[in-house]
Amino acid sequence: MPQIRLATPADHAHLLALWRDSVLASHAFLSEPEVDAILPCVRDAALPALEVWLIEDGPRAIVGFMGLDGASLEALFVAPAWFGRGAGRLLVAHARRLKGALRVSVNEQNPAALRFYLAQGFEVVGRSPTDADGRPYPLLHLAEPARAGSAPRSPQPPARIHALAAHHLADLLALYPHLHANDAPQPPAEITAATWQACLSHPGFTCFGAFVGDALVASATLVVIPNLTRGCRPYGLIENVVTHAAHRRRGHGMAVVRAAQAQAWALGCYKLMLLTGREDAPTLDFYRAAGFRSDDKLGFVARPPD
After folding, report:
1. pLDDT digits (tens, 9 = 90+) for 96-135
2. Of the candidates 111, 143, 175, which is a domain's last residue?
3. Which of 96, 129, 272, 283 is the most exposed place for a label (fewest CB within 10 A)?
């Protein structure tokens, strides 16, 4: 099954090649020299400035990508061999889960793209006689209607991501009910405090937090475990990934998972694992987008006997 993940600078050469192939196959109104003239703008301005997500059909087999600027879908390109196979739809669905109702502009001379977005529920809300750079390629502006029952989200400043310390215990305890609403009762305060201190003192333990202002809105725990196999490279476990219900779909959960991944790779881990008891598509898609694969190994869980 195709997997979605954030792009890195190491992916840019592949993305540029895919962009060129896709544009040549879908933008018949552009000549090959015109496409090549636009390519440096994509390389030097668009890719570095946008939040770029890609979709892979296997490791390093990139079949499409999109670029987001907030809720604006600034770019969506699929390899020609994957036209009509659902990669674009999966990317749009992922963007919608991250950002809510989306906006997009398409070239008027690209009717296939217009049909695609109309089929995804977008509506035409405007037209410009030229593209953003003043070239004579009219743009149609489309938007998704707000979904019933979903209030518009107020803008937030970017979250600060850092490891939690001893004085963050109360914040973390206030956040955890958003992970397990019916968790076991908390033991006496002195036991909880001692357990938190033991966690912080444990080699390889880091609990990452995302802060908006002074509020802890998301966290994820990483434990790195020494190992005698794989050339004595350690492995990592991620547990207790949680985002406050009022701050979801803003990228905070992904940010703390990415921080845990970055530390695991910096410490030389050869793999990073997690388990989830959730089976709903948004949760599973979230972890797939973070680079975790559900088809790599089979997980088992044992619990103590009653």
Report:
1. 888 888 999 998 888 889 999 999 889 988 888 887 777 8
2. 143
3. 129
